[in-house]
Design a protein that fits this description.
The structure is a homodimer.
Chain A: E1 4-11, E2 16-18, H1 43-48, H2 58-63, E3 70-76, H3 77-80, E4 105-109, E5 117-118, E6 124-128, H4 132-143, E7 147-152, H5 154-162, E8 168-173, E9 182-183, E10 195-202, E11 207-213
Parallel strand pairs in A: 1-7, 1-8, 3-4, 3-7, 4-6
Antiparallel strand pairs in A: 2-9, 5-6, 8-11, 10-11
């Protein structure tokens, strides 16, 4: 059965998924990029940016689960780009260049309608103004028997957790403090929402945990 | 120079240091005791309760730093016992039996005065009604050249973090979700308070991080 998954979602020791003061230069906010230090050296990421010779091992094995068996993606509008409010710059086509690493439909949550954008390599960005349930319905229809992956960011993952629509959430806890920014879990009672910690793989650079939703 | 330290402070993935609904039977709240699963098998803990043959290795090495070089302790009144409000039961002398594992003065924060209690093995419980600064002054005077250790619980550690009076805080992040309870760091901006993550030792059963305060 098709599942809804989140992968490679990095948080700080104090629970932040992004730092404060997000800008075009620092899209993850001050200090936010450091949360992903475990990910950048991996073979998975290095291949994504056209390199070879990345690290193998547990971090890479876990990182590489992202995208596997996935037929459609959902992301928040702030993950798609730095523009807030109306689409004043229609030339913005995401952070990922002409051939984004999704190779399937990507449903972008936004309050501002925009025509779909077909990219190279099979990625098409669709802009969904009807909320998280509409985006999920469209992503599931597009994915068919395959899984739906939620890319992020914090606000999007929080909304889907609260709606109990995520089956599997991989968190990478980085050995960093952020102090402020976007907190992933504050105010969400994951136990009451039916989640448990199903796996725990610590490495030298991150602690990987997978939270899964028990059937209710 | 004498330092103020916290050791073996366990929190859940979602940041709780104790679970909800604390009772005499479950002093750490529902699910709270599980946060310490990494600690119970260690040689350090097993010796503390009179056994031999506990585990050695990184978890034990880290656990055993607790108490080393410590000349006085501070703890919150809820860590000392389950009684709330006035001391209706003067027979309560802590959770630890006749010979508590402190072997030095222990300053208990409370709003209700009570005479000091001299226990076996060098532990004396003193009850401090003047707040966290008075407790710290008295603990430092008692410790002399040695360090002061803050035992807990969550509220006590939070207050001393906010006052920037903790030099070193060892957290053990357990691979558990609690969902609710007492959150250790919510609303505290540790970066602004001057803390950084100084060490990171992941093991099969917990992720150990040490946060230290930079001088200002």
């Amino acid at each position: 059965m098709s599942r809804v998954r989140v992968h490679n979602f990095s948080i700080s020791i104090d629970g932040y998924g992004a730092g404060p003061r997000q800008t075009r230069e620092e899209p993850l906010g001050v200090g936010g990029e450091e949360l992903h230090s475990w990910f950048f050296p991996t073979d998975m990421f290095q291949r994504m940016i056209g390199n070879v010779g990345g690290t193998t091992g547990a971090d890479n094995d876990i990182a590489a689960r992202s995208g596997t068996g996935v037929g459609a993606y959902i992301m928040g509008r702030n993950m798609f780009g730095p523009i807030r409010g109306p689409w004043t710059d229609e030339d913005w086509r995401g952070w990922w260049g002409k051939n984004p690493p999704y190779h399937s439909p990507v449903f972008v949550l936004t309050q501002h309608a925009r025509s779909s954008i077909e990219m190279q390599g099979g990625t098409t960005f669709h802009f969904v103004t009807g909320g998280i349930h509409e985006a999920m319905d469209r992503a599931k229809a597009a994915a068919g028997e395959m899984d739906v992956q939620i890319g992020g960011g914090v606000s999007t993952v929080r909304q889907y957790l609260e709606a109990r629509l995520i089956d599997e959430l991989h968190l990478a806890i980085a050995p960093k403090l952020l102090g402020s920014g976007e907190h992933l879990l504050h105010g969400l009672d994951l136990t009451a929402l039916g989640y448990t910690c199903a796996s725990h793989v610590p490495t030298a650079v991150a602690t990987h945990v997978t939270l899964t939703k028990t059937e209710s």
